């Protein structure tokens, strides 16, 4: 009786190569699903294949050709016109800023003078614009008041009043120096920074805006675990093989048990396929099929028989087959299995 052959284990390199090909195909499909063209009133975002490149699997050395994708963003006609005009305006602003920046080389080379003398000088210049007219008006009112009260110019009372007024004027200027230094420094720095701020504003207006891309849904096609399927299939085949090996002795025993006296006596048994039903192959014996079956006319609850098919035995060992008077083929199991 022939033994079943064990399944060959999967080739790791071939399995890895097939798994990589599956992964690559799935990745390309996912990329195609995610490349969704977008059409909006402001512009379009389209994807296209603009070539290919080769990817070499580091494990197997297999080369895969992958598509090279390009995303193209375009404006609508009205938005394109606005964009073109803004580019012209920004170039003009950038040019103006470049021209003015030459001025800064000399301007920044002159340090800001924040010494007490310089600040006080500036405070006096700014303070006199407001204090001098007020103090002059106060002086005139005082002189008019003294005259109206009969105090003559040059008298002691007149001189004392004028001296007190001058002291008040000095106090006003001293208060200006004491409280106005911080303001004077800030105004000096503001005046210093004004041309720098103007040029900075021009430069900030010349920055090129980056295009904004819209996030789209990214559907993902799961990768088939090809290597796992190959291993599972091998495990199943190996399990069947092991079961067949365990049952091999039982099959042979059942075959030789179907009338051992008939086999020894060389009595032919009815084995014609035409008189059998519910036929299921159970294995092989010396290159001939071994089948479980019931004879036609037997109920489905009847036990299954185990035996050969006369038509197959006739091809391999024709001298072991004979026919009855009605044409039904018989098998002499002693001759059919004499070499087993």
Description:
The chain is an alpha+beta fold and 340 residues long. The protein has 8 helices and 9 strands. A 3-stranded antiparallel beta sheet has the order 1-2-3. A 3-stranded antiparallel beta sheet has the order 4-9-8. A hairpin with a 2-residue loop joins strand 1 and strand 2. The longest helix has 49 residues, at 156-204. The chain is rod-shaped and about 175 Å long. The chain starts with 11 loop residues before the first helix and ends with a helix.
Write the layout of secondary structure elements.
Layout: H1 12-34, E1 38-40, E2 43-56, E3 63-75, H2 77-107, H3 116-148, H4 156-204, H5 226-256, H6 260-265, E4 269-270, E5 276-285, E6 288-295, E7 305-307, H7 310-316, E8 321-323, E9 329-331, H8 333-336
Antiparallel strand pairs: 1-2, 2-3, 4-9, 5-6, 6-7, 8-9
Helix pairs in contact: 2-4, 3-4
The gross shape turns out to be rod-shaped
As a percent range, the share of helical residues equals: 40-55%
Subunit arrangement of the protein: single chain
Helix-strand sequence:
HEEEHHHHHEEEEHEEH
Distance between the termini: 6 Å
Q: From the alpha carbons, calculate the radius of gyration and give it in angstroms.
A: 56 Å
* Backbone structural class: alpha+beta
**Strand fraction:** 15-25%
Mean pLDDT: 76
Strand order of the largest sheet: 1-2-3
The description of the largest β-sheet is: 3 strands, antiparallel
- Low-pLDDT regions: 245-253, 256-262
Short description:
With 340 residues, this protein is α+β, with helices and mostly antiparallel strands.
